[in-house]
Design brief:
Blueprint (H helix, E strand, L loop, with lengths): L1 H5 L3 H10 L23 E6 L1 E3 L20 E2 L4 E6 L2 H4 L18 H8 L7 E4 L5 E7 L2 E9 L5 E2 L4 E5 L1 E4 L5 E4 L1 E4 L2 E4 L3 E6 L10 E9 L15 E7 L10 E3 L4 E6 L4 E3 L5 E5 L1 H4 L1 E6 L1 H13 L8 E12 L7 E2 L5 E3 L2 E7 L5 E9 L3 E2 L3 E6 L12 E5 L2 H6 L3 E3 L4 E2 L1 E3 L6 E4 L7 E3 L2 E2 L2 H11 L5 E11 L11 E8 L8 E6 L3 E3 L18 H30 L6
Parallel strand pairs: 1-12, 2-13, 28-39
Antiparallel strand pairs: 1-6, 2-3, 4-5, 4-7, 7-9, 8-13, 10-11, 14-15, 15-22, 16-21, 16-25, 17-22, 18-19, 18-22, 20-21, 23-24, 24-27, 25-26, 28-33, 29-32, 29-36, 30-31, 30-34, 34-35, 36-37, 37-38
Keywords: Membrane, Signal, Transmembrane, Transmembrane helix
Protein name: Gram-positive pilin subunit D1 N-terminal domain-containing protein
InterPro entries: FM1-like, GramPos_pilinD1_N, Ig-like_fold
């Protein structure tokens, strides 16, 4: 048997190796082929872990940079255990042990390992980093079983176990086969979320004028419950809550052109007619955009299900809504994330009922990972350090101290308006964001200080760049004295790794801007006495004391004159 297997062609071996990367049916046993590579213990397996909307039937290639489904998100904190298998047993070369037909199911892993595991190799656990990757290095050639042992708390179905062959055979066009010692594996977790919103290809930092792509996925009723008639059909509504700036204005403008796709359990997609969806944009007044799915969409989905009545994997499980949005000028005074980093984060809310009218998704909200913008946050506080929430303050930025004193501020080049941040009445915070935009000017010339620093940070990973700005308060809260002098703000701009976002941190400057109330001492002004109240009383008391002192002195002088020596 073993000699026969060794005569398998390289092309057949490559096809079998590709099949190992997917849930496998029956596969022939094979002999490990080193492809002329030296087994020097320097091979590796790298996992790239992603969350997707459905299972994929596409086999892996073993290469780095494999294409990913739309909306795939890297998963951090997922643990995998790597087991080495007994080569001879896997190849069917041991009497009494048949070659396995494929990788075991999750329930059969223990029994599989009892038969095929190489006990001389200790199981090795690795956990994915923020980019969703984990690597096992210094491996010998052979067969390995990769098992997901902890999904890291994500609401997903675990990936199926897989057998990874090292080295990995790749068949190129024309039938030639190459072998790789460093194998890249892309096991995927299928999301269990009823509603999910994903930023597609989110940039490392964004600014006004740029476009963002999103996908909203929501589950649909089971086959037979989607469309019985137009009157008895699935109803679905998706509401996108756009992020707002401190003044309550949306920082995104949603494009009314969008795509809608039916996604099957097996991963197949079918484009639906977006014209059958009613789109409503009321973001200018309430920050909301809404998609309403009518009976035509339900009818199309039920048609796909009917065609695949005997094929469960072909039946529709989710609808994918593809959206594009433009970052608008309101983002210059946009939002912040939990760490205080300026960002754009928004949520989608879905409500879905089946053809019987039973609600299956009742206003479920999905949070989208924030998209980073460039800038900083400050808080308007009073003399005691408490946020000022009784009235808002406004701030502007200058490129230099001289510009700040002269009133020459950084402008939005497309509107010639000064960049302005308004403090929130909720918590007193004000945010300058989107500062990496190239459409900025100062004194009539392009302002590229921050854009250049971002470019330098991208080119010099881990090497922080610094930029100085000058903050000017142009309108103080009612009842407070305005800040008297410009304040220097030094930003540190950095990009830690190729996959990281660009961050901005204030390393020198006011994170809290203090205003004193009218009539309070300090703030760079000499306090004048209050009029009325105790201020006037103080002067009256002092005046009365002076008069009393004068009267007493006069009385003493008179008494001295009457009883002095000349009067005796």
């Amino acid at each position: 048997m073993a000699s026969m297997l060794k005569r398998l062609s390289g092309a057949l071996a490559a096809l079998v190796a590709l099949a190992l990367m997917a849930p496998m049916g029956a596969v022939s046993a094979l002999a490990l082929d080193a492809g002329g590579l030296a087994d020097d213990g320097s091979a590796s397996i790298t996992v790239h872990k992603y969350k997707t909307q459905s299972a994929s039937s596409t086999p892996g290639t073993g290469e780095n940079g494999q294409g990913l489904p739309v909306g795939a998100q890297p998963l951090e904190g997922v643990s995998f255990t790597l087991y080495r298998l007994d080569n001879a047993k896997v190849e069917g070369a041991v009497a009494g042990t048949a070659a396995p037909a494929g990788a075991p199911t999750a329930d059969d892993v223990a029994a599989f390992l009892a038969t095929y595991r190489d006990n001389g190799f200790a199981p090795n656990v690795q956990t994915t980093d923020p980019d969703g990757t984990a690597t096992w290095a210094s491996l010998a050639f052979g067969y390995y079983l990769l098992v997901e042992t902890d999904a890291g708390g994500a609401n997903v179905d675990p990936a199926v176990p897989s057998i990874v062959t090292v080295p990995y055979a790749r068949q190129a066009m024309g039938g030639s086969t190459s072998y790789a010692k460093d194998v890249h594996v892309y096991p995927k977790n299928v999301s269990r979320e009823e509603v999910e919103k994903t930023a597609i290809g989110a940039p490392d930092v964004t600014a006004p004028g740029e476009k963002l792509e999103y996908q909203i996925a929501f589950m649909v009723p089971e086959a037979g419950k989607v469309h019985a008639s137009d009157a008895a059909a699935m109803k679905a509504t998706v509401v996108d809550r756009l992020p707002l700036n401190a003044a309550g204005q949306p920082v995104l403008t949603v494009n009314p052109s969008f795509t809608v796709t039916a996604l099957s359990k097996g991963g197949d997609t079918t484009a639906l007619n977006a014209g059958d969806i009613v789109f409503s944009d009321t973001s200018a007044s309430d920050g909301l955009v809404t998609w309403t799915f009518g009976p035509e969409i339900a009818k199309a989905i039920e048609g796909i299900n009917s065609t695949n009545a005997s094929n469960v994997d072909g039946q529709v499980v989710k609808v994918l809504l593809g959206i594009t949005a433009t970052v608008n000028d309101n983002a210059y005074n946009g939002g912040i994330d939990a760490t205080g980093q300026p960002s754009i984060a928004n949520t989608a809310v879905a409500t879905v009922s089946d053809s019987d009218g039973t609600v299956m998704i009742d206003g479920k909200e999905s949070v989208t990972p924030a998209v980073t913008t460039m800038g900083f946050k400050l808080t308007k506080v009073d003399a005691d350090g408490n946020p000022v929430t009784s009235d808002s303050a406004t701030f502007k930025l200058a490129a230099s101290y001289a510009d700040a004193v002269a009133g020459t501020f950084i402008k939005n080049g497309s509107t010639s308006a000064d960049l302005t941040a308004t403090s929130s009445l909720a918590d007193g915070t004000a945010v300058f964001s989107g500062l990496s935009a190239r459409a900025l000017t100062s004194g009539g010339a392009a302002y590229t200080g921050i854009g250049d620093a971002v470019a330098a940070a991208r080119a010099n990973l881990g090497a922080p760049q610094t930029v100085e700005l000058w903050l000017v308060e142009t309108d103080a809260p009612d009842g407070y004295r305005i800040l008297q002098a410009p304040q220097k703000v030094t930003l540190r701009i950095a990009k830690a790794t190729a996959d990281a976002t660009v961050s901005s941190t204030v390393v020198d400057g006011p994170l809290s801007v203090v205003n004193t109330m009218n009539g309070q001492e300090g703030g760079g002004n000499f306090a004048l006495p209050n009029t009325g109240g105790m201020g006037a009383v103080a002067f009256l008391v002092a005046g009365a004391a002076l008069v009393a002192f004068a009267v007493a002195s006069f009385a003493r002088s008179r008494k001295g004159g009457k009883h002095g020596p000349s009067g005796r």
